[in-house]
Amino acid sequence: MGLTIFIWFFVLCCTLGLRLYFQKTLAHKLEIGEVNRVWFDATFAIAPSLNGFVWGGVYCLIATLDNPSLLLGASFVICSVAFHGFTYLTHSKLCYLSYFISVFVLPVFYHFILDSNYVVGTILVIGCTHFLFYNRLLYDRSTALLTRHFDNLEFIERQKNIEKKLKYLSEIDPLTQINNRSSYEKKLKATRYRAQITHKPVNIALIDIDFFKLINDQFGHIIGDHVLKQVVMTIDRLTDSSFTLGRYGGEEFILFNNQQEHDAFALTLEEIRLSIEQMPLIDIPSGLSVTVSIGAISSYTNSSQESLISNADSCLYEAKTAGRNRIVLHSYGK
């Protein structure tokens, strides 16, 4: 008996090695397209089937000992082996069917033909059939429900991402990547409310690139776009998160906050004006200089948005008529 068990164990190791070989080799061939899915399933089922026969064979060996305790233990073992294999082979119907049948075919044959123990044989057949078909049905239904659930979650996530992207695109100027009109108008409204609560001024500046039309006419619109982007980057670098920067239109930008008093706001604007005048121009022809005119207000009054922007626009007009490359800042209400 000891030699028989040794031979059985050796055969088991061989079938496990063969199973590993098939798994690696066939999976690689499937990935590179050398074998189709049906042929893969049929070939891959060989090793599990041999493995099942080996386990069924050792059950028959134990059954010949005529020891009820050992037979009961062997029954538990082959059932465990069969059900354990279900989790690994369940995605290939041919594999798990051939594996289950090969595990139980020898024990069933032994009890029906050799041992004439029809009760045990019938129990094995019923149990195997029940698990093969009923549990497979439950598995298919549960996995289908889970698949639909995760598909729905994935769909919802995609919709959320699309909504975020659309919201971003609806609020951002595509060229300069700063707030467009609809976006900065909403933020200016919130800034006015905060100013009323904190009793601080609403600071608004309109920043216009001097002679921008001549830049476009002389150097082309591509260079003009580069100028717009570099001016935006300079302003963004010199302002903190309390500021909101938006594209007012064409070569004009709007900048506002309510965290600074009049003098501090004036210093920030002067730093912006001077930095733009001195900024290194990247990918822009030499000989081109860029300056800005700035019209700004610091208002402590409860004026409307239209009135605030109109006052800032009047200051910008003053800066342009006074010679450009300068700041005109007026204070209201204090």
From TrEMBL:
One annotated GO biological process: cell adhesion involved in single-species biofilm formation
Tell me which domain of life the UniProt entry assigns to the organism this sequence originates from.
Bacteria
> Which top EC class is named for this enzyme in its record?
transferase
List residues traversing the bilayer.
6-22, 42-64, 70-89, 96-113, 119-139
Cofactor dependence: Mg(2+)
Question: SUPFAM superfamilies of this UniProt entry?
Answer: Nucleotide cyclase
Question: Can you give the residue ranges of the GGDEF domain?
Answer: 200-332
Listed A to Z, the keywords are: Membrane, Transmembrane, Transmembrane helix
**What's its catalytic activity?**
2 GTP = 3',3'-c-di-GMP + 2 diphosphate
Q: Name one GO cellular component term.
A: plasma membrane
What is this enzyme's EC? Answer: 2.7.7.65
Give the GO molecular function terms.
diguanylate cyclase activity
Q: Which Gene3D superfamilies does this chain map to?
A: 3.30.70.270
Protein name, UniProt field: diguanylate cyclase
Species the sequence originates in: Vibrio splendidus
